[in-house]
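TnpV protein
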Amino acid sequence: MAKSLFEQLGGTYRKESDYLVPCLTVPAEKEQPIGIWGQRHLDYLKQYRKVTYTNLLTSGRLNTYLADIDRQAQERFERLIEGMKQAQGITERLKEENALEWTGRLGNIRACAREIVEEEILYT
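Predicted structure tokens:
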């Protein structure tokens, strides 16, 4: 009896009752820490991009992909905050003179930067 394509590619079967079931495994992937940006993108993939999520998961590249998205988003977030602080003149001197105003303005900058990162990187 000729081998199936699955067997020719090195696949094996196990017997379940009267049926031969293929032994399928997902390729091993190096575990990398995933931060908040990667977790948010994972939720987005699961909800709105199910095919992309499934393809990444079954190919064993999901964790690496999410770690890369997390790194890119964090770097972009930090660059945006620094750029906005310089553009609006928020300095350590303002922090010393009026901590409450400094905190409010920095909070606004962080919220704006978060929205930009979500639009540019996470939800695309």
